[in-house]
Amino acid sequence: MTRKSTITDVRPAGAEHQVVTVVSKGPKGKRCYRRTPCADCPWRVDAVGVFPAEAFRHSASTAYDMAENTFACHSSGTKRPATCAGFLLRGAGHNLSVRLAYIQGQIQDDLDDEGLELFDSYREMAIANGVDPGDSVLAKCRD
Q1: Tens digits of residue pLDDT in 86-107
Q2: Which residues lie below 8 Å from residue 19, measured CB to CB, with a gap of 6+?
Q3: What does R_g of the chain's alpha carbons equal in angstroms?
Q4: Which residues touch 59 (CB under 8 Å, ≥6 apart)?
Q5: Distance between CA 78 and CA 3 in Å, rounded?
Q6: Distance of CA 7 to CAs 3, 23, 63, 79, 80, Å?
Q7: What is the pTM of this model?
């Protein structure tokens, strides 16, 4: 499977982390996405504190109404980028790019939370990971 990926932005998020914005499509327009949350997926309630608050500040726009950028799986990396399963399960309801991908059949109904406790919204996840509830980056997040 060949994927075409372009890194459009890299922002530092603490001493050992960064947020990388990648635009990618698989063959014939298929979207690459994880089916289940990984072991330290930030959407997992039991993974609080794995990533710095700044990472959540950088990624907040993925939860804005009609957003076209998506929340990528950190485990997939930049060589084989994929959309995060936790995001698709809990944070993508208002994301235009994800809604269109479902309509176009690029994302299927094959996601599974495996019984894991996930945050109900991006805002809830970001606050639990140290973002101030009054931070302006959360103002546009849809719950």
Answers
A1: 999 998 999 998 999 999 998 9
A2: 9, 10, 11, 13, 55, 58, 59
A3: 14
A4: 19, 71, 122
A5: 11
A6: 13, 6, 20, 10, 12
A7: 0.87
